[in-house]
Amino acid sequence: MLSRCIFLFVSLLVLAGLTNKAAAEHERWYEFEGTHFALSIERVAGLEYLDFEGPGGGELTARVLLNASERVPTSSARFGFDVFIHRFSIGAAGGFTNKDVGIIAPRVGYLFGLTPQLGLWLRGGAFYAAAGGAQYFGPYGEVLLGWFPIPQFALTFGPTFDFGVSNANNRDYIQLGILSLGMTVFL
Fold first, then answer.
1. Which CATH class for the 2-186 domain?
2. Range list of β-strands (E), 34-117
């Protein structure tokens, strides 16, 4: 497991170096100069693998639109707000599905310009969530490919990772979002 994590980390570093070179060649001079804001709806749909601590193994599930019956709160769709200083982003995402389920997730990120229509947005942070009397917290990360059909709007999709630690017995989990879909508007 540790060797896989090291391999993934080194692969992301190499990818970041390659995309930074590609960004210098393909980005437009007026993109992300100064400060910008972004509003997002995230994890609207996707394909996820969820594995709780203890015996029993994990399961693969698919979500379409705003399912309110998720097994863990990090699966639920959320709204996001980010402030961009050039390509570096600082923001938070949050949402709730009813009075018992809610999440807040601050984050930092960086948006690499691959071409004028494609970008790679790496984000990471921590979350706090409550669901059905249990409280969760932990780190999360996202590697989102953004497709910009117009300059101020992006459809985002890519893998996500959540590691949830709970105050309830045997409720710690690892969730891998194999494919997570969302939308972002840049202001």
1. mainly beta
2. 35-52, 59-63, 78-85, 88-98, 101-113
